[in-house]
Amino acid sequence: MDGSTDIAVTEQEMVYVRTCKQGAVGVHFIGIVSTPKADADGVLNSLEKAITNGLDISFTDLGKKIVAMGTDGAAVMLGCNNGVVTKVQQKYAPSVVAIHCFAHRLELAVKDVVNKHPRYAELETLLKNLFKFYKMSPLNRANLKEACKVVKKKQLVPTRLGGTRWLPHTLRALQNLWEIYPALVLHLSQVKKEGQSADAKAKASGLHKKLTSRFLVEFGHFVWDLLTSLSKLSLFLQSRDCSVAQVSDQLEAQLALLAKYDDPEYCGPKLLKVRGEDQLDGVTLIDTGDPRQRGRRVQMEDITGNICQDLVDSLVRRFDMKSEIVKATAIADLKSWPATYNEAKDFGDQEVGILSSHFEANLEHAEVDVDSLIPEWTMLKSALYKRYPRSSFQKLTWLAINNNFNTMAPNILRLIDLVLTIPATSTEAERGFSAMKLVKTDRRNRLAEKSMNIQLRIALLSPPEEEFQPLPAVEHWMKACKRRVDSTPASQPVMDIPKAAAGTEGVGVGTSQVEEDSSSGSDCSEMEMDDDEAEVTEDSESDKGHQSEEDSVNPNVGGREWENFLEEEDSLQEDGTGGGDEDEDEDGYEEDGDSSFEEDDDDD
User: Fold this and answer.
1) Least crowded by CB within 10 Å, which of 227, 311, 517, 529?
2) Residues 6+ apart with CB under 8 A from 285
3) Of 564, 578, 570, 594, nearest in space to 499 by CA
4) Which of 424, 225, 240, 224 is nearest to 319 (CA)?
5) What is this structure's pTM?
C-alpha cells in the first residue's frame, strides 16, 4: 500500500494484495481510493473501502487471512503508536507483521552516504548541470549528436538524474556520461571558444574543466562500479517474485562485495581501466588536485574506502531485521539450505515453531493442522535431499515442490505459502502510480474514482497485445445488456446506393424499412431495392442524367432522412433506451449537449 498525489492535487491511496497458492505467488491490483486527509484514520478508511469495493468482502473477514502489510516506511503507516499498521493490529488482525519496503531502505541507505560525502554530491551536481545544459538548448543537443558522429560514438544525451529515486536511473546517467565522454569534451571545448553568449561560454568552460579532471574521472568510475552492484540489488528488491526470505542472502552478498572494494589493493573493473591513466578515449586528463600522483592516489583510496565503510554501516543499520518472524522466513529460501541432509536434520525446526506460534490463528482459519507441521517438515526435508542433488536447489521452486509433495506434506506447504505471501517491497504501488499519471492527465483531471479504477484495471491487468483474446470481451459486452443488432443477414450482400436514389418515391422500399435503418444509425445505404434500379454504373452518362433528374424532382431528400432519424431518436428516448449513459459525467468530461450524436457513435 502506498499514497501519492494526482494531477488534480488529490491524495490517492493504492492497494495491492499479494497471494500465494501452492507455491505460485501473485500480486493483484485491488483499487485506488481518494482520501480527504492522509492521516492514519483517513488512510485506514481508504484501505477498508478499497478492500470492500475491490474484493467484495469486509476488512473484518480479510483480517483472518492477512499476515503482513508492506509500506514505504512513512510514519503515518509504521508509527508504533498511531500508525495504520498498528491500528490494523488493534482492530482486525493482531498477528499482522509490518514490513518496511526493502527497496526504499536501500535508497535511504545510499542517501545517507551521499549526504555525508561532498565528493559524491559534486559528481551528482555535474550530472545535473550536464542534463540542464543540453535539455534547455536544442542547438547544444544537435551539436552534441554531431560530435558523437565525429568520434564514432552512439548518439546519446545526458539523462536526468532526479525524478524517480531508484538507483538504476542514476546508473543510467553515469553510463551515458562515460559512453559519450569524448563527444561531450569535444563539444564543450567548441562552445567555450565559439559560444553564442558569455553565459554559455562560462557554463561550457566549467563543465569542461570538471570532465577533464583526473580525480573526478577516477571517482566517477568508482561510483560506476558501486552503482552497478547496488542497482542489481535494487532491481531484485523491486521484482514481484522477491520475498522476505531472500533478502538476507542478497544483502550478505552485497556487503561482501563492498568489503572487497574497501581493500586498497583491489578496485572494480570500471575503475581499473582509468586508474593511473593519463588519457581516457583520447582525452587528456588534468590533475587538478595534488600534483604528486602518489599523494593523489592515497587521497582517492582514503575517500573510496570511507565511502565503502560508511555504506556497509548504513546498509546494516537500515536492513536491521530484529523481528524473529522476519528472520524465521529464511526457511523458504531454498538457496540457503545446508549442503547435506545430515547438516539439515535440525535445520528450520525452531523457525517452524516460531512461525506456527505467531500465525496460529491464520493457520487454523486455513484448516492447517498445526501439530503436524514439525513431522511434515522433517519428512519434506528428507524427501527433497533424496530426490534432488543440492546443486539443483538453485533452480528448484516451491511450485514444483507442491506438485510433487503436496499429498505427503500438505500442512507444512501451506505454512510455506504463508511465508511467501509476506511482501518484501511496496514498489508495485509505485508502478501503479506511474500508470495513474498516464490515465489521469491534465486534460482528464475530473476523472471520477470509479472510472479511474476501471481504466487502471485495464492498464495494469490486461495481457500483452500479442496474447489478447478479444472473443471473451466481445461476448461479455454483448451479454451485459440488450444490444440493437443490424437486421441485415450476414449472408445478404450490402448494396452501395446513392442517397438520392434511395429517397426517390417509387423505388419500392417501405417506409418502415427506412425508419428501422435510421434507428440503427445507417444512411439508408442498406435498403432493399429492385435489381434493375440498384445497378448504377459510374461510367454511364445516362444513369448520371437519370440521377440528376431524380434529384430535381426530390430536392429535400436529405431533410426527409433527417426527419425520420429524429423521429426514431425521440421514440427511443421516450422508451428509456436512448439518451446515452447516465453516469457519463463520471468519466471527467462535460456533456456536449446533444445526446443523439453520442447514441449514433455507440451504434457505429
Assistant:
1) 529
2) 212, 213, 214, 217, 277, 278, 279
3) 564
4) 424
5) 0.75
